[in-house]
Specification:
By secondary structure, the protein is of the alpha/beta class. It folds into 2 domains: 122 residues, Rossmann fold (3-Layer(aba) Sandwich), CATH 3.40.50; 240 residues, Rossmann fold. It has 16 helices and 13 strands. The strands form 2 sheets. The chain has an 8-stranded mixed beta sheet, sandwiched between helices. Strands 2-1-3-4-5 form a 5-stranded parallel beta sheet, sandwiched between helices. α2 packs parallel to α3, α6 packs across α16 and α12 packs across α13. Bound molecules: adenosine-5'-triphosphate and magnesium ion (MG). The site of magnesium ion has 4 residues, from α6.
């Protein structure tokens, strides 16, 4: 970057302005103070600087950027569009008076373009207009589906089993609209567990966030039933891919506008980086087995969750309880060793697990009344109970046909 790196906090802000000159900056500071957005949310820099700095963090709800002096304003906006979350409202300032440019910017999703020098009145009016757009389409924000990240403390403890079962129960028993995402593109088992063919294009979308829109979702998701949609892949092991974390953010934002709940089966390698980007309302479900190693890693994971996403609800689940008589920790020992409380225990039930696997159905569906299903049901209700403040009216927007 040509100037000192912009120092932006990584928590999601309600407002950020990045402007190129002192006069505009002073004006923005006044507005920021008046609205209680914090004067430190006004920075000096170009639109390109803003795009670069924002690539690493959640983008603010309102973003003012300055295109003056830019050699290629459209390219700058394009770079910003790639990193901006779906609900960030962008107001651009600039010194080029050109109706073509204005139209292009609007087409790219910029809310307003103000010609410099701007007055404080114009700026306030533009911000108010952006606000009105927000209240005119309340479903974009108030209908914000809950994110549920399920992560195994260790391999094979049953994280995917938990994800599939709670997703199925929330969709079929609780009437919620659920999206289930298998982030393990190579070895994921969710599609298999539900006897479905993964859709196409998930990997490409994770490499290229600009591909993520309604059409992509329609193509890539497979429908298990009216309320349950699955996003998974079965990538060949020879294909390497570079996962763009921004793409996942964008994907989740898009899905949350349409679903009551988005459940992610999160592989452990991705947990460290992804958990920190969970935007509320969110839950993290940590699944472990009752072993010493599981206890240690549950402690480490829950510590991470509490530090990096203190706003998320945390549930600790021990699965496969009663598997081995010796060498298994009691729940009490697990709790005191890991210094936490266990929220749910799921019994080891190899009969139901094998039955479900063989049938390509969840335990929730095929062994409904077993203790294993009942424990999973308790967890699913616990997670969806936290949803109540979000889902008041079932105003489900049809996913398909949204562009
Ligand atoms: N409570 C249970 N009782 C018996 N078997 C179980 C139970 N929970 C899960 N299993 C079985 O354990 C195996 C591993 O489960 P699963 O794939 O859900 O684990 P995972 O944590 O997702 O593993 P990975 O780390 O490979 O992603 C599966 O065969 C599953 O059917
Ligand atoms: Mg798994």
């Amino acid at each position: 970057m040509s100037m000192p790196a912009l120092n932006i906090s990584s928590a999601r802000a309600s407002f950020l302005a990045v402007v190129t000159d002192d006069v505009t900056r002073a004006m923005m500071v006044g507005i920021a103070i008046n609205n209680d957005w914090g004067e430190d949310q006004v920075l000096e820099g170009t639109a390109a600087d803003a795009a670069e700095a924002l690539a690493e963090i959640p983008t603010p709800e309102r973003l003012v950027i300055d295109l003056s002096g830019s050699a290629d304003p459209l390219a700058d906006i394009d770079a910003l569009a790639k990193v901006c979350m779906a609900d960030t409202r962008v107001i651009a300032l600039g010194d080029i008076n050109d109706v073509q440019l204005f139209r292009h910017l609007m087409d790219m999703g910029v809310q307003d373009y103000l010609l410099k020098p701007v007055s404080a009145e114009d700026l306030k009016a533009a911000l108010n207009r952006a606000e009105e757009i927000e209240t005119a389409t309340p479903d974009d924000n108030s209908q914000h589906g809950r994110l549920v990240a399920v992560v195994g403390a260790r391999g094979g403890v049953g994280a995917s089993t938990v994800s599939a079962n709670i997703a199925w129960m929330m969709a079929h028993e609780q009437g919620l609209r659920v999206a289930l995402i298998d982030l393990d593109l190579y070895f994921g088992t969710l599609a298999l567990a539900l006897d479905m063919e993964p859709g196409l294009g998930f990997r490409e979308a994770l490499e290229n966030p600009s591909r993520i829109d309604g059409l992509f979702i329609e193509r890539a998701m497979v429908r298990e039933s009216e309320n349950l949609y699955i996003l998974a892949a079965e990538e060949g092991l020879e294909n390497s891919f570079s996962f763009d974390p921004k793409a996942l953010d964008r994907l989740l934002e898009t899905l949350r506008a349409d679903f009551d709940c988005v459940i992610i089966d999160l592989p452990r390698f991705a947990a460290r980086s992804q958990i920190s980007t969970l935007i509320p309302p969110a839950s993290v479900v940590v699944v472990s087995d009752p072993t010493l190693a599981g206890m240690r890693d549950t402690q480490r994971l829950t510590k991470l969750v509490k530090t990096v996403t203190p706003g998320s609800d945390l549930s600790v689940v021990i699965n496969r309880v009663g598997n081995s008589k010796n060498g298994e920790l009691t729940v009490k020992d697990f709790e005191s060793g890991a210094e936490l409380s266990v929220d749910h225990q799921i019994p080891f039930d190899v009969k139901s697990a094998i039955l479900a696997e063989g049938a390509g159905k969840t335990v929730a569906e095929i062994a409904k009344t077993t203790k294993m299903a009942q424990s999973l049901r308790g967890l699913s209700r616990d997670v969806s109970g936290r949803l109540e403040d979000v889902v008041q009216v079932p105003m489900w927007k049809r996913l398909m046909g949204r562009g």
